[in-house]
Write a structure and sequence with these properties.
Belongs to the short-chain dehydrogenases/reductases (SDR) family. InterPro entries: NAD(P)-bd_dom_sf, Sc_DH/Rdtase_CS, SDR_fam, SDR_subfam_1. By secondary structure, the protein is α/β, with parallel strands linked by helices. It has a seven-stranded parallel β-sheet, sandwiched between helices. Helix 2 links the parallel strand 1 and strand 2. The longest helix has 29 residues.
Length: 298
């Protein structure tokens, strides 16, 4: 066994992210919680924050402080340290202060998972400036607010990994989500620019593009009514319908764990040669041929 193989084996024994510190936005529930759970199980200490309230234009319930406390308990039950805060990702100064506290109390910021997000379903001609602004402030400016202060710490250490959560709507349109689609396209451009700018410091910046995921963000009454055109649609209906989104056999909406596993790998040394990558986590959704959802027949 070579020295590098021995080192890799030792890391595997201790956990893929042993000794690292991961910062996670939108960490109270859903995808953020599963990222925290997985990285902690692989040896990382966690700093996470969430709004723990419903944004003013949101069409589904926001995370709660109880959700955040539950995620903290999950991490601590895995034997890892967890720093948490009720925090608005749109508040640049507050996020920067939390990042600084995480670096000071936990020793570093090695991994950033810019995961906080919001989607609402509004036809473009009905979209208000408030609805446009809130989605883009959370999904785009929130990424800036999370990543910039973390990169300051990473530059000093000449290492780090950032993973931004985009969406398949970062490369394709979606019905009645122009504002969301714009924000998810934008973060891919930001990711590529950051990969270029910070590669010389040994910092990798990538993005994941999930398709339908079975969390409150997708599986909620507003989205179900939009999909099915009725008020009584259920989770079973949602899972059945999302099979049509995927090319892989019998694949409904992804589990949040599926996205977390991809993020964990992207943040790991196993992906050390990857930067500037926009990685679909979509069960083949993006290779499906397009079709006209509303053909003109006259």
């Amino acid at each position: 066994m070579t020295a590098s193989e021995a080192a890799s084996s030792a890391v595997a024994d201790r956990g893929r992210h042993h000794g690292k510190v991961a910062l996670i936005s939108g960490g109270a529930r859903g995808q953020g919680r599963e990222i925290a759970r997985l990285l902690a199980s692989q040896g990382a200490d966690i700093a996470l924050f969430d709004l723990c309230a419903q944004p003013s234009t949101s069409q589904y319930a926001g995370a709660t402080e109880a959700d955040l406390a539950e995620t903290v308990a999950i991490v601590e039950d895995l034997g890892r340290r967890c720093l948490s805060r009720v925090l608005d990702v749109r508040d640049h100064e507050a996020v920067a202060d939390f990042v600084g506290e995480a670096a000071s109390r936990l020793g570093a910021v090695d991994i950033v998972c810019a995961n906080a997000g919001l989607v609402t379903w509004v036809p473009f001609l009905e979209l208000t400036p408030e609805q446009w602004g809130e989605v883009n402030d959370i999904n785009l400016t929130g990424v800036f607010n999370t990543v910039q202060p973390a990169l300051r710490h990473m530059v000093e250490r000449l290492s780090g990994s950032v993973v931004i959560t985009s969406s398949v709507n970062g490369v394709e349109p979606g019905q009645s989500i122009a504002h969301y689609t714009a924000s998810k396209h934008a973060v891919l451009g930001l990711m590529k620019n950051l990969a270029l700018e910070f590669g010389p410091y040994g910092i990798r910046v990538n993005a994941v593009m999930p398709s339908a995921v079975n969390t409150v963000m997708g599986n909620n009454s507003t989205n179900l009514k939009w999909i099915f055109g009725r008020d009584d649609a259920t989770e079973a209906d949602y899972l059945a319908a999302t099979r049509q989104w995927h090319v892989l056999r019998n694949q409904p909406a992804l589990r949040p764990e599926d996205v977390a596993e991809t993020i964990s790998w992207l943040c790991s040394d196993e992906a050390r040669h990857l930067t500037g990558v926009q990685l679909p986590v979509d069960a083949g959704h993006l290779v499906l041929p397009g079709f006209n959802h509303e053909p003109i027949t006259e």
